[in-house]
Design goal:
There is one protein chain. It is built from eleven helices and twelve strands. The protein is of the alpha+beta class. The strands form three sheets. It has a seven-stranded mixed β-sheet with strand order 6-3-8-2-1-9-12, covered by helices on one side. Strands 5-4-7 form a three-stranded antiparallel β-sheet, with no helix packed on it. Strand 4 (about 35-40) and strand 5 (about 45-50) form a beta hairpin.
């Protein structure tokens, strides 16, 4: 199962052994459902635990002896540094030492089918509540940077340059790059490249050819596309497609008008709140789900 929500991803699959080193532009939480997972790094000793956190852009390789693994992606520009540090510290605790670890190791954090074949539909805060027990504290961003990020997301297939955004706000290119990095913690070019690669998660089950998808996402050709995806996920686009065949895919797009249903945390049961990092509300928005043509990635 793979759920692609605004600024969050949850992938649950039996993890294979053919993954190469990967460099994902999101904070990654690996949860070994059946046992420990091993993460190898290029610049530090390997780490073996039931729950392993990898910071955004940390180059690593995951091995799990073909067990079921939950992989959670959190876009770093959407969460405060304080919250990310707190989350990482709590997830580093031994099993039983923190309710958040117990929550992730349990099966309740995995969205399941509801009666009638409908799926629980989750926006950013709703995803955080379902998985972590509470909404993660958001990052405060300059409104110009928020506009620039939305502009990039809308035009992934176009070549959006630093100069284009800088001109929009009457800034020099160097000043805009500093402002963007200071706000998000990510260099502008790196952010743009990751969002393009992340968008493939929304296209991986589409019937279009890989060349068509590459061009739609703004890659100059299929060779560049293949290299970028492999560097990001440790698999080529073709291998990702093949290994996800048969998985259930849930896509939760952002509401076009920003309107979302809301349920205050006061209405959520104490059991749902257990292990929360922080939280104020549960947001619900529309989604589409279908069985894709179980995953062994």
């Amino acid at each position: 199962m793979i759920m692609v929500a605004p600024d969050r991803v949850l992938h649950v699959c039996r993890l294979g052994s053919r993954l190469d080193f990967r460099e994902i532009g999101a904070h990654v939480v690996y949860v070994g459902v059946e046992g420990e997972v091993t993460v190898s790094w290029t610049d530090r000793p390997q780490e073996r635990s039931r729950v392993v956190v990898v910071p955004a852009y940390g180059k690593h390789r995951i091995a799990a002896d073909r067990q079921v693994v939950k992989t959670i992606l959190i876009e770093p520009e959407t969460v405060s540094d304080r919250c990310l540090a707190d989350l990482s510290a709590r997830l580093a605790c031994p099993k039983g030492a923190d309710p958040l670890v117990e929550r992730l190791l349990g099966h309740g954090a995995v969205p399941d089918e509801m009666p009638g074949g409908a799926f629980p539909v989750i926006s950013r805060d709703g995803f955080d509540l379902a998985v972590f027990g509470g909404a993660l504290e958001g990052r405060q961003l300059d409104e110009r940077i928020e506009y620039a990020m939305a502009f990039i997301r809308r035009r992934l297939g176009d070549t959006v340059l630093t100069a284009d955004c800088a001109q929009e706000f009457s800034l020099s290119s160097s000043r805009f790059r500093r402002l963007f990095a200071d706000n998000t913690g990510i260099p502008f070019r790196r952010y743009r490249m990751w969002k393009r690669a992340r968008a493939y998660l929304e296209q991986v089950f589409e019937p279009a050819s890989l060349t068509e998808i590459a061009l739609e996402l703004g890659y100059p050709d299929s060779a560049h596309f293949s290299r970028s995806i492999r560097a990001t996920y440790g698999l080529t686009p073709r291998d990702m497609r093949a290994k996800m065949r048969g998985a259930v895919y849930i896509h939760c797009p952002p509401s076009p008008d920003g309107a979302i249903g809301r349920r205050d945390l006061a209405e959520v049961s104490p059991a749902e709140k257990d292990g929360a990092v922080s939280g104020q509300q549960l947001n619900l928005t529309g989604a589409r789900a279908f069985a894709a043509p179980a995953a062994h990635v």
